[in-house]
Design goal:
single chain; Thiol Ester Dehydrase, Chain A; Rossmann fold
Length: 1057
């Protein structure tokens, strides 16, 4: 009675009276979690959990004469004097209601129409009305910052109907005179229609008979083409089925939103997802001119149940340009019914104008979300508890950080092979007969008691850590004894999971970048774990490793996973009147004569009014294009110096900074310099690593330290998206850029201006893109990475700088993503084919695959689905002869290679031509090997492709590997089946009449494996009923089986099978 909230309140009341409560069991399956409270008053941590975003509770509401409303959007209710009117008030913002950012139209976060519906339903419940008779959406509501809401319910008319209106205005300073805008108006119904009970379709089989499955990913591709982008909370369609004149679907909220659903009538994200499949139906005409059909009028909305987090729905026609909806929970209980939703077409340019949107790509931020993975404390002396099967996983630790110290005395009985100072020591132990570990923790945390380095020592430490990481990876990959094991790279404070993180290990940041690229080249071999060294986090480590997620952070026992999220567009409240460029100050630009540096220098003068520039370039005025740049800046009236200076040279940079005139002090730094030296990780050397680190990391560190005390208003670092997404062949470049990301966070923690811009692909040819060939560009396009034009890039730069001025995080990802391509990639090749941080943006395809395994949360979305794809191939091979199997494998390999090379026609790949002749290089060879490994389920060596002259030979090799593995699998399956048979026979009752049938089947099976006599040969090697294992030469086996007692039969099974 009273639902989950009342139940939990009652449990809490009992608990404070002394009743024991098993809290983990109570919250199992939810996203509830234990948080640590600060133990010291000056830790600068908030003590209390965040208050409800809609307000501060009943006591605060009472101070203003209001009644508290426990609703996520509306926090207070006030009956108005001398009338029957009611006022409901609330507040929303991107910070307090982060799910709104998952609903964007034309690049702008909009409050969805379903939120207006839920507010109207809540208002109806407060005044005692049965539902919403009608609700018309009059204007979209963009959510850039804080928004104040008012819902006004008029007094009842003669028929007891009440008008309801929803108003909003941006939150601003006191004294603001901006007008309230009415966004929706409707009528609340006085009474409900007679309850018809469960809809007929929900009482029958699910999915409904006669329906045909549709592709959910296609649905989101269509919406994307129309300007809609749905994030994780709104991309809840998991399955769709079509039947003439009807659409059926199953929709679900992600795990992180389920508790919030309890406080809504129906969560706006869930209701929006329930309506989305109308686009796949044939009963609503779609405009041919590219117009968008928008929700306009809602008719007959009745809420039957609250708090649902998953629905089964039926959509059907409700007249011209209208759709009806019936929604039930997974048990078939009615949740909501909608008589009609009327849709109206609107031209896309008009839509952009209405919402104040933009046609340029959105900005992104890294969002570390809590992951609902159950954490179980391991034994005090070991890493893992015994597995359910009783097998002990073998593990080892290499390194000298906190984890090494913690596990130095680990009990070998827990599976610990040992703690070693480095990988070479572990390999030596294996040479001496030590057990091979299944998991190795490589501890890169700080040694206990060591101080954080500064200055030159810090730069040397970054290089040393990156080199140690590279040597570790190369040693791991070169040793076949680790082929089936996972290497877990453990860091402390290398990445910031919160924007206000106070501590950053810059060497660890560079290591994360390097390892992300290594993971791209060698999926399933490496895991990245960011750790805070606390006991609760060590206890959560086994669950983190068992999750299958390749990158995670563990903070105070909580497991978090990273993903990109759309950064809300700054609004007026962001105070973006300036972007850190003082017209009287000097702006320093490194890499100024490069493509991006020179483009930036011109833009600073023309768009930001910068009049004084210090331009640094290693080649200075001798660089290509330098004279043209000087001429153009001079014609624009700018004062500048173009100096030959390597910013990585501390003395040279110090000398260059001394040239800045006192009348125009340095007020901004923009670091764009960098070089490439691409190669797969096996081919990298310490020297190639240093060559790329130096112009990025050393130069940035010099700029950071030599500008200390100067009146900087902006410190901008040009990083690359490869630091977040990884990139085959770019481990050194990813390490250098990840260092910049960490440095920006470090400065931010010190209260200094900083932002790292992780740029994606630019269309303009430059040092960073000039090497890309047609195959590379096709591969990137296929993977969802689209190039930015110069105009788009500069617009995004300005928006990113505005976001920084508005107080956003010090790391922003600036790239153009084709989310439809991401979804196609995930649907066609599995979630693992999409970089981890992009999987939330490909949410429909990823979550749909996760749902079919029963895991619809974000953690599950990070787990790949190679086993099912590999099993599908093996199932096809099982019914073929040797030649047929080889042909099938060749066809699969041919399709994968064609896709890697960007060919739409698989016949374009000649299987007998050499790989080099058809354009395969080391990077595409890595991708092909990974694709083939995923589709076959085989663990394939790094040199797989170039160990074979062409695709035909490679397919033959794969066929041999699969055949050999198939034989091993068959034997293992037979032994496993015999174990199951043993247990089943022993469980039979003494009087079971099927014992005779069991005896006959055992006889037949013995004949199959050759232990039973054949062709009249009645001799046998085994006696039945002798009670002796392995007895030789007995009488007729068949006869003895027929006459054996139950005890003899059981002894036979135990001793011989």
């Amino acid at each position: 009675e009273g639902g989950l909230r009342r139940f939990l309140t009652s449990v809490a009341e009992a608990f404070v009276q002394g009743v024991d409560v098993t809290w983990p069991a109570l919250f199992d399956g939810t996203d509830a979690r234990v948080i640590d409270l600060p133990t010291y008053p000056f830790q600068r941590q908030h003590y209390w959990a965040p208050a409800s975003p809609a307000g501060t509770g009943s006591s605060a509401a009472a101070r203003f004469g209001m009644t508290w409303e426990e609703h996520p959007l509306l926090g207070g209710a006030l009956p108005l004097a001398e009338s029957g009117e009611l006022l409901l008030v609330g507040r929303i913002s991107p910070a307090s209601h982060s799910w709104i950012a998952d609903h964007t139209v034309a690049g702008t976060a909009l409050l969805p129409g379903t939120a207006f519906v839920d507010m109207a339903l809540h208002a109806a419940a407060v005044v005692g009305c049965a539902g919403v008779e009608e609700l018309n959406i009059e204007a979209p509501l963009p959510v850039h910052g804080g928004i104040r809401l008012q819902v006004v319910v008029d007094e009842p008319d003669s028929s007891d109907r009440r008008r309801v209106s929803v108003f909003a205005r941006p939150e601003a300073e006191d004294g603001d005179t901006s007008q309230w805008t009415r966004h929706a108006v409707g009528v609340l119904a006085p009474s409900a229609a007679p309850d018809a009970g469960r809809p007929q379709w929900s009482r029958a089989a699910w999915p409904p008979s006669g329906s045909v499955r549709a592709e959910a990913a296609e649905l989101y591709d269509r919406f994307s083409a129309l300007g809609y982008e749905y994030g994780e909370v709104f991309a809840g369609v998991e399955d769709v089925w079509l039947r003439e004149g009807e659409v059926f679907a199953e929709v679900r909220l992600p795990a992180g939103a389920t508790l919030d659903a309890e406080r809504f009538g129906v969560h706006p994200g869930l209701l929006d997802a329930a309506l989305q499949p109308w686009l796949l139906g044939d009963f609503v005409p779609r405009a041919d001119d590219g117009s968008v059909l928008l929700p306009f009028a809602w008719r007959g909305i009745t809420l039957h149940g609250t708090g649902a987090n998953a629905l089964r729905v039926r959509l059907g026609p409700a007249g011209e340009e209208a759709v009806s909806l019936e929604a039930v929970d997974l048990a078939g209980a009615p949740v909501l019914s909608l008589d009609a939703l009327v849709l109206r077409p609107l031209a896309q340019d008009r839509l952009v104008e209405l919402v104040g949107g933009t046609t340029s790509p959105p900005l992104y931020r890294v969002d570390w979300q809590w992951s609902p993975i159950v954490s179980v404390a391991p034994p005090a002396t070991g890493l893992f508890a015994p597995s359910p099967s009783g097998a002990t996983r073998r593990w080892a630790v290499v390194g000298e950080g906190g984890a090494a110290a913690r596990y130095a005395t680990a009990d070998p009985g827990t599976g610990c092979v040992g703690v070693f100072p480095d990988l070479d020591a572990l390999r030596t132990a294996l040479d001496s007969g030590a057990d091979r570990p299944d998991i190795v923790l490589a501890d890169f945390g700080a040694r206990p008691g060591t101080a954080a380095p500064h200055g030159t020592a810090l730069a040397d430490g970054v290089r040393d850590t990156a080199r140690r990481g590279l040597a570790l990876v190369q040693g791991w990959l070169s040793d076949e004894r680790f082929a089936a094991a996972r290497l877990v790279v453990l860091t402390e404070h290398a990445v910031a999971t919160e924007a206000d993180a106070r501590q950053v290990d810059l060497a660890g940041s560079a290591l994360w970048g390097l390892m992300r690229s290594v993971q791209t080249e060698h999926p399933d071999r490496f895991v990245l774990v960011e750790h805070d060294g606390q006991d609760t986090s060590y206890q959560a480590l086994p669950a983190a490793l068992d999750s299958g997620i390749p990158q995670l952070a563990v903070r105070t026992g909580e497991i978090r996973t990273p993903g990109l999220a759309v950064l809300p567009t700054p609004g007026d409240e962001a105070s973006v009147t300036g972007t850190g460029f003082d017209p009287e100050g000097t702006v320093l630009v490194t890499g100024a004569t490069g493509t991006l540096g020179s483009l930036l220098a011109r833009h600073l003068v023309t768009a930001h009014g910068v009049r004084h520039l210090l331009l640094l370039s290693r080649s200075g005025r001798d660089a290509d294009g330098a004279a043209e740049l000087e001429h153009e800046l001079t014609s624009l009236g700018a004062e500048f110096q173009l100096l030959s200076c390597d910013a990585a040279d501390r003395a040279a940079l110090k000398e260059a900074l001394a040239t800045v005139p006192a009348a125009h002090p340095l007020t901004a730094v923009i670091h764009t310099a960098g070089v490439l030296d691409d190669g797969v990780v096996e081919a990298l050397t310490p020297e190639r690593l240093d060559r790329v680190l130096r112009p990025k990391a050393d130069a940035a560190l010099n700029l950071h330290e030599l500008t200390a005390g100067m009146p900087l208003k902006a410190f901008v670092l040009y990083s690359g998206a490869v630091s977040l997404l990884g990139g085959a062949g770019q481990a050194n470049y990813a390490a250098a850029n990840a260092f910049l990301d960490g440095l920006a966070q470090h400065r931010h923690a010190q209260g200094l201006p900083a932002v790292s811009l992780a740029w994606g692909l630019w269309s303009a040819a430059s040092t960073f893109t000039g090497h890309l060939g047609e195959v590379d560009l096709r591969r990137m396009e296929r993977s969802g990475i689209a190039p930015l034009t110069n105009e788009q890039g500069l617009e995004l730069l300005d928006r990113a700088l505005g976001a920084v001025a508005g107080g956003d995080a010090p790391q922003i990802c600036v790239m153009r993503l084709d989310t439809a391509a991401l979804r196609r990639q995930a649907a066609a090749h599995g979630a693992a084919s999409v970089p981890l941080l992009l999987r939330t943006l490909a949410a429909p395809a990823v979550r749909r695959g996760a749902a079919r395994t029963g895991r619809g949360d974000r953690a599950a979305s990070a787990v790949t689905d190679p086993l099912s794809r590999a099993q599908a191939l093996r199932d096809r091979l099982a019914g073929l002869d040797a030649a047929g199997r080889r042909d099938e494998i060749l066809a699969v390999a041919q399709a994968q290679l064609a896709d890697v090379l960007g060919f739409t026609d698989t016949t374009a790949v000649d299987p007998v031509r050499s790989f080099r002749e058809i354009g395969l290089d080391s990077l595409t060879a890595v991708e092909l090997r990974n694709r083939l490994g995923a589709v076959t389920g085989l663990r394939l060596p790094s040199a797989l492709v170039f160990d074979h002259p062409n695709l035909d030979a490679l397919a033959g090799h794969l066929a041999e590997l699969l055949a050999a593995e198939g034989r091993d699998d068959a034997g293992a399956a037979a032994l496993s089946g015999i174990d199951a048979l043993d247990r089943a026979v022993r469980g039979m009752a003494d009087d079971d009449t099927r014992r005779d049938a069991v005896r006959r089947r055992l006889t037949e099976l013995l004949a199959v494996v050759g232990d039973a006599p054949r062709d009249g040969d009645r001799s046998t090697r085994t006696a039945v009923g002798t009670g002796s294992r392995g007895a030789q030469a007995g009488p007729d086996l068949l006869g003895r089986l027929d006459s054996a007692s139950d005890e003899d039969l059981f002894a036979f099974i135990e001793d011989q099978l």
